[in-house]
Amino acid sequence: VQPVCSGRGELERTVLNDVWIAVPPDYHTEKAAEKTQPEKKLFSIEEEMIAMDLSLESVSDLLRKLEPVFQSMCEDGNKLETLPGGLLTKSNCDVILKVWGEMGPEFLEQVKSSPTVALPIILNRLREKEQEWQKTKSSYMQAWQVELRRLFDGFLDHRGTLFLEHEKEKFSTNELLQTIKSKSFISLPCTSDKRICGEANRVLKTSLELELEDQDRRTTIYSRYEDFVNTYLTLDCGVPSSTEKTSPKDHLSFYATEELYMLVRFLQALRQKVHKTWLLAGNASRRARLLQQDTSETSQEKLFERSMDLLFNLLGANLKTGEYRTELRRVLGPNCYEVFSTSWLIKRCLKLVIRIFAKSSSESMKLVQCSNERDLTNMSDYTSLLREYELSIFTTR
Q1: What is d(CA 58, CA 95) in angstroms, rounded to the nearest whole number?
Q2: CB of 396 within 8 A of CB of 184?
Q3: 186: phi then psi, degrees, rounded to nearest 5
Q4: C-alpha span between 142 and 152 (Å, rounded)
Q5: Which residue, 267, 230, 231, 237, is CA-closest to 252?
Q6: DSSP secondary structure code for residue 63 in this structure
Q7: pLDDT tens figures, 327-360
């Protein structure tokens, strides 16, 4: 229950809020001070609403000043030579200039010099304008309310913005290469869940179909990619350095070029994002059960499928990034920002898949083919292979 502030009068109850919103501790830091896209849009709508209110208030204020003058003139039957001094302020004059456009300066002069003739005309015009702008505001308010409700979920999504930036730094080329160069062996756990692996492969295959028009080329690339994945990424995978003499017994180990290493890391991250989507769908499903919502439409399976469908629509350009995030937030809840980087990882994977598997003459492809043909268990075997085929292996030196 929200606490209610005491001591409020009628005016305070009509204009002050009783609802408060908790924001993250870093909300006021320099980085968090950068507005999110929903926040920018909300501020833009607020500015439009303020501008509309100011326009209406300026017309109403001018009417409140001129109507008593005109009424007094009609009752007394006297003609006014000029308006009372100080009656019209600069903002009142600006209203007349805005309403009459190009004729504004001339009409403003007539109001000041011949109020008896000008007042009936200006009052009628201002009443018409007031009614027109009130109707405009009513129609705009409907659209604004819809837009405000749509944007509210992402208004304070600074966690999502900062998390996405951190993800891009974490998976930058320099960061990943620095990781392998600082160690002799890196263990890369690859999930054995067939559903997760299948979904990760499916999004890559769909992206490949969208990227390449040549069907034969697509088939060749994906076939080589599948062979590589089925050989090396179905168990926990270890990528050793060139100085590693033996491999841990519980790992499938292989030596790699920079491109292959980067591909393995991005594929690992992609599978983790798909798995995270599944977990978030489970959390959202449990929340729905607690709220006694329709369980047939909010099961973990259904929510996961809807999330993946949104991802495919984003990849196919049927959804914009902002629309995708908004819809995903409705499906998975506020923590869905943890999988916002999935589409970005897919693009990185796709570039590497095409670069590595498009040509059998590429160094990475040669290494994969030769590794499949021979039983290579240590670095000396690889060294002989590299000399024979004149390949340059990725090394930590």
Answers
A1: 7
A2: yes
A3: -120, 125
A4: 16
A5: 237
A6: H
A7: 898 899 888 888 988 999 999 999 999 988 888 7
Residue whose tokens read 């292996």: 393
pLDDT, tens digit (0-9, with 9 covering 90-100), for 15-62: 887 766 666 555 555 554 566 677 788 888 989 999 999 989 989 888
pTM above 0.85, yes or no: no
Determine the Cα–Cα distance for residues 274 and 341; give it in Å rounded to an integer: 11
Q: Read off the DSSP letter of residue 84.
A: P
* 8 A C-beta contact, residue 160 and residue 39: no
**240 strand-pairing partners:** 185
Sort 76 into a burial class: Cβ within 10 Å, 0-12 / 13-18 / 19+: exposed
| Cβ-Cβ contacts under 8 Å for 215 (sequence gap 6 or more) | none
| 186: β partners | 239
Q: DSSP readout, 45-106?
A: HHHHHHHHHHHHHHHHHHHHHHHHHHHHHHHHTPPPSSPPTT-S-HHHHHHHHHHHGGGHHH
Q: Classify burial at 104, counting beta carbons within 10 Å of its beta carbon; exposed 0-12, middle 13-18, buried 19 or more.
A: middle
Instruction: Count Cα atoms within 13 angstroms, Cβ side, for 322.
Output: 13
